[in-house]
Amino acid sequence: MMDAALKYYNNPNYTWFPNDNINYDYVSEDISFHHTSDYGSGRMPYNNFLNITFISILVICIFGVVGNGIVIWLLGFHIKRNPFTTYILNLAIADFGRLLSLIFAIVSNWLTILYDLSSILSVSSIFLFLSTHTASNFLLTAISIDSCMAAFFPLWHRCHRPPHLSTIVCVLVWVLSFLLSRISFIILQMYNNEAVIRVLYQFIVNAMVCFPLVAAATLALFINVCCKAQQHQRRKLFTIILLTLLCFLFLGSPLNIIVTLHFYIYILSYVVLLAFVLSCLNSSVNPMIYFLVGRERKARHRESLEVILQRVFKEEEGCAEELQPPVQIQL
């Protein structure tokens, strides 16, 4: 997956990241980690950069796992479910799994002496990352489209939207994500001598489909929220959605774009690893967005995340009631 994952799937020394114990005879020549343009005068500077990157990813992932875990617990067991919380809950699950997979990947890289355990962790972490990464992209695309429908056609969205549409969409997203990940693994087995990053074609789907849709929906939603005064009562909810989508465009999308470009041109390992750091930030920042936007600035006491989430989604339900057409009583 990562650019460091240059070993083919069935190699007993297989790992996500470069390691001195790896037999680099299995590595494709065009993207070898010994490429002089990647490391300059020697390999040691890159190793230092790699270790710093690993530690940064690990710290970000730990905070992100805790934050998304809290969101999953609150939305799953303590807050009344509605169409929007269904999307947010599944998005938190996808981000939680993606961050957990990167933790597994780093641990497997540090346990390369235990080859059997390392191989199991590497394969599991790659499959988990592929599935949750794709699910997160698809869920954000669905959220952006649904939010635009709610902003431009509020009455239709509240009165005629299928009640279980969010649940159906989330189920389809997870099924499609696991299916694409399985196809990627089949391709990995077919291209034994190719770099992992070169055969993950589902990133092209994320870059070519999800990114344009989210970008267009984000722009439309931003214009709608800023121009229409009646959206004031839902400003916090739409602000959360906008910030979440913007974080995806600037933090999550670079990884899809860089991997897609890597199919055609050589990309430095530094760039790919930095894209993974940004992707970790994208998966970790959403709980902070919910907290900072949803809290009351003039509140005398510090509010919990549960109270903040309840306020935001209660605001959503209140707007839904206001948008219901009045009932006419015939005498």
TrEMBL record:
This entry carries the following GO cellular component terms, namely:
plasma membrane
Name the PROSITE patterns on file.
Answer: G_PROTEIN_RECEP_F1_2 (PS50262)
Pfam families per UniProt: 7tm_1 (PF00001)
Under the GO molecular function aspect, what terms does this record hold? G protein-coupled receptor activity
Report the main location listed first in the record: membrane
Q: Which residues form the G-protein coupled receptors family 1 profile domain?
A: 67-290
InterPro entries cross-referenced by the UniProt entry: GPCR_Rhodpsn, GPCR_Rhodpsn_7TM, MRGPCRFAMILY
Q: Look up the domain of life of the source.
A: Eukaryota
State its location(s). Answer: Cell membrane
Membrane topology type, per the record?
Multi-pass membrane protein
* TM regions (residue ranges): 49-75, 87-107, 168-191, 203-225, 237-257, 263-293
Keyword annotations: Cell membrane, G-protein coupled receptor, Membrane, Receptor, Transducer, Transmembrane, Transmembrane helix
Which family does the record claim for this protein? Belongs to the G-protein coupled receptor 1 family. Mas subfamily.
Its name, as the record gives it, is: Mas-related G-protein coupled receptor member H-like
Whose protein is this, by species? Eublepharis macularius
Name the lineage: Eukaryota, Metazoa, Chordata, Craniata, Vertebrata
